[in-house]
């Protein structure tokens, strides 16, 4: 829970004006003296470590119930929304894809994986097309 709390706090912290530093229209960095630190990199490691830990601690629930599977997917989805607010489409995509792979390797059922994968691919595709259209205008 400490890893999860730290990751979410970092992702929220970077969105706070005055703390998060904006470069080229994206607020992804926090200034640390002479350098900038991209919090999404650390947050991704912390979140994926949390998901792996969840998969170990709740292995039976993860394999048995959709409810046990959707809990870490919801955490990943919430973090992805925070990443998209920066905006950081690449980090959100990598986080979701890697998180789903971790859950698959931990033994989640394929039928459980299909729902978030299909919805995620459709949502990210729509977001990419929308952003491409809006950004080109």
Q: Taking all residues together, what is the mean pLDDT?
A: 86
Oligomer: single chain
Radius of gyration: 16 Å
**End-to-end distance:** 42 Å
Count of helical stretches: 6
What are the secondary-structure elements, in order, as H or E?
Answer: HEEEHHHHH
Per the principal axes of the C-alpha atoms, what is the gross shape?
globular
Strand count, sense and barrel status of the largest sheet are:
3 strands, antiparallel
In total, how many beta strands? 3
Low-pLDDT parts are none
How much beta, percentage-wise?
A: 5-15%
For the largest sheet, list the strands in their spatial order: 1-2-3
Helix content: over 70%
Give the helix/strand class: mainly alpha
């Amino acid at each position: 829970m400490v890893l999860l709390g730290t990751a979410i706090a970092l992702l929220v912290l970077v969105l706070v004006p005055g703390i998060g530093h904006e470069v080229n229209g994206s607020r992804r960095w926090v200034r640390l003296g002479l350098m900038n630190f991209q919090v999404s990199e650390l947050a991704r490691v912390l979140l994926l470590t949390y998901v792996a830990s969840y998969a170990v601690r709740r292995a039976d629930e993860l394999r048995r119930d959709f409810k046990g599977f959707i809990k870490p997917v919801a955490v990943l989805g919430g973090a992805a929304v925070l990443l998209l607010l920066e905006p950081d489409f690449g980090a959100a995509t990598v986080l979701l894809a890697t998180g789903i792979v971790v859950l698959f390797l931990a033994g989640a059922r394929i039928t459980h994986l299909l729902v978030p994968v299909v919805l995620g691919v459709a949502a990210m595709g729509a977001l990419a097309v929308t952003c491409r259209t809006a950004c080109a205008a």
